[in-house]
Amino acid sequence: MTYDQVKKNISQKKFSAIYYLYGEETYFTDKLIHLIDEHALAQGERDFNAEIFYGAECNVGQILNACKSFPLMADRRLVIVKEAQSLAKKEWEKMLPYFQKPSPTSVLVLGFKGKEGKLDKAALKAIEANGASVESKKMYDKDIRNWTTLHIADAGYEAELGVVDVIVDYLGTNLGFIENELDKIFIILSAHKQ
C-alpha cells in the first residue's frame, strides 16, 4: 500500500490488523503512527485499550500479550511499537505466527526506522496478506521540493516561483522540520487574512 492509501483508509476508519511502516524517510512512518494513534480509538477508549512500546525496552512476549488481550468497552485494542528496529531480529521471528493470523480485535502498528529496519520476506508476506506495509524511501532534493510545494498547496496557499527553493535550501531536507516551520508561517498568514 502507499502512504496516501493508508492515510485515506485511516480517515475512513478502515483499519488493518497490522501496519508495518518502515524505511529511511522517517517522517512518513511517524506521520502514519500519529494518525493511527489519533483515529483508532475514541478518547475515552484509550486508557484501557492503547499500549505503546519502544523496541529497545520491550520483548515479543509483551507485544503478543497486548495484541491478544480483549478490548475493554471498545471495538479494538491499539498496540504501537515505535523504533521497532531496536528489537532483535530473532525476537521478530517469534512474531511470524501472529503475522499469519492476527487478532481481529487488535491493531498492531510496527514503526521501523532506517535502512536496517526490515523484517524478513516471510514476515512481510504474512503482513501484506493480513495488513498493510508502507515503505518510506529516502527523498532527494527534487522530491522534497515537490513535497514542499504540495504541502503549501494543501494548506491553501501558493508559493511564488523560487520560494520553495529558498525554503528547502535554508531549512534542509528534514520533512518534519520543514512542516513545522511552514505551519508557523501559515498561522501568521491566516492571522493576516482576518
Describe what this molecule looks like in 3D.
With 194 residues, this protein is of the alpha/beta class. The chain is 51% helix and 14% strand. The chain has ten helices and five strands; from the N terminus they run H-E-H-H-E-H-E-H-H-E-H-E-H-H-H. It has helices at residues 3-11, 26-39, 46-49, 60-68, 89-93, 96-100, 121-130, 141-154, 163-171, 175-193; strands at 18-23, 50-54, 77-82, 106-111, 132-136. It has a five-stranded parallel sheet with strand order 2-3-4-1-5, with helices on both faces. Helix 8 crosses helix 9 and helix 8 runs parallel beside helix 10 (175-193). The relative contact order is 0.17. The mean pLDDT is 90.
Poorly predicted ranges (pLDDT <50, ≥5 residues)? none
- Relative strand content: 5-15%
Number of strands: 5
Query: Helix share of residues?
Result: 40-55%
- Write down the overall mean pLDDT: 90
Report, as a whole number of angstroms, the end-to-end distance: 40 Å
Question: Could you say which structural class the secondary elements and strand pairing correspond to?
Answer: alpha/beta
Strand order of the largest sheet: 2-3-4-1-5
Question: What is the radius of gyration computed over CA atoms, rounded to a whole number of angstroms?
Answer: 19 Å
Shape: globular
If helices are DSSP runs of H or I spanning 4 or more residues, what is the number of helices? Answer: 10
Secondary-structure element order, N to C: HEHHEHEHHEHEHHH
Largest sheet: 5 strands, parallel
